[in-house]
Specification:
This protein has 349 residues and is α/β, with parallel strands linked by helices. 39% of the residues lie in helices and 20% in strands. The chain has twelve helices and 17 strands. The strands form four sheets. A nine-stranded mixed sheet has the order 3-4-5-2-1-6-7-9-14.
């Protein structure tokens, strides 16, 4: 039986990866999350809890999902002291992990990125511990999620916005990424390159743009805007002018692209994941309020953090190298989110 590791496996992207692996394979999945942001597997995993043992929870047929509630750094330190830690603790016969998906990070919306940048910088510590373990454990394949925040902010202004291509990040001529979150992700990409080139680790990096989905928490703009539209907010408040734009891509497309990237990239190359389309927040409000059947007044909140003005990507490299492109349109994806928002509104959220 193959065994995969998903760090940060209860966060938005992590739990969608766990659900995909559980529904499409018969492999064992170990997920680690401290639940500081993520939600417990009982709220989203379609598999029964079978037992609890040595601080872990086992789910599904053959106990093939193992959830460990812990700070990833603590587990990695245990593994550094005893590489056989998992086998001894859970009576496994695990020689090495097959696929490792590293989603553990200090994450949050714009309020977190701008409001507590030093806390976000702890991602540097998480990634340093992770890559040190990776180069010693040598899993079969590794996925490192970077971010569109790694791109130079001077390419994302109102006056000088371009469709960002992978070559716009060049480690020999550095631009300034977006706050400590961007710096940490850029550093992670560099560590991934080192792991591939100097230690022979098979690794792919991704730069997702503005991922969204039905089960995303309300600290992110898309589900929050959808919920306010479901409640028919009027006037409808938007942070900044609302003319800031992002490249919104549905989580199902993000997971699809990750799986293709794992098959086709091994040298640490980083790829964009997006629609290749700039959509403003006012346009997103328009989509949701149309679904809700009303036309509110838009009220700009100019004292709120907004980040860069325009962030979207060029997808030509991914289409050529991987033969992949997103399949879920903005209209279809946002409709799915709106239907979930109706449920949340009915539940009094």
């Amino acid at each position: 039986m193959k065994t995969h590791l998903v760090t940060g496996g209860c966060g938005f992207v992590g739990r969608n990866m766990v659900k995909r692996l559980y529904s499409t394979t018969s492999d064992r999945i170990i997920l680690i999350d401290d639940l500081s942001v993520g939600t417990h597997p009982t709220t989203w995993l379609d598999a029964p809890l079978s037992k609890k043992d040595h601080g872990a929870e086992f789910y599904g047929e053959n106990d093939r999902v193992i959830f460990i509630e812990s700070d990833l750094r603590e587990i990695l330190r245990e593994l550094r002291l005893d590489p056989d830690y998992f086998n001894k603790k859970f009576d496994l016969d695990l020689k090495r992990f097959d696929d490792v998906f590293h989603f553990a990070a200090i994450v949050g919306g714009r309020l977190k990125i701008d409001g507590d940048p030093m806390m976000v910088a702890l991602d540097l510590a998480i990634d340093a511990e992770f890559f040190y373990w990776v180069v010693n454990h040598k899993p079969a394949r590794v996925l490192y999620p970077s971010s569109s925040a790694a791109y130079p902010v001077d390419l994302q202004t109102e006056e000088d916005a371009i469709a960002l291509s992978e070559s716009d990040i060049d480690f020999t001529r550095m631009g300034q990424p977006d706050m400590t979150y961007g710096w940490s992700k850029l550093t992670g990409e560099y560590l991934a390159k080192i792991a591939a080139e100097h230690y022979g680790v098979s690794i792919a990096c991704i730069r997702p743009f503005s991922g969204y989905g039905e089960d995303q928490d309300l600290t992110y703009p898309v589900p929050a805007i959808a919920l306010r539209a479901a409640k028919k907010e009027d006037p409808f408040e938007v942070w900044g002018s609302g003319y800031q734009g992002r490249d919104f891509v549905h989580i199902d497309d993000v997971i699809d692209c990750i799986m293709v990237a794992m098959d086709k990239i091994s040298d640490g190359t980083a790829i964009n994941i997006g629609m290749g389309k700039l959509t403003t927040f006012r346009e997103i409000i328009g989509v949701f309020t149309k679904l809700a059947g009303y036309e509110p007044e838009i009220k700009s909140l100019m004292d709120k953090p907004v980040g860069v003005h325009s962030r979207y990507c060029q997808m030509d490299f991914v289409k050529e190298k991987l033969g992949w492109e997103a399949r879920i349109s903005i209209e279809e994806g946002m409709k799915r989110v709106y239907m979930k928002a109706l449920e949340r509104a009915a539940a009094g959220m």
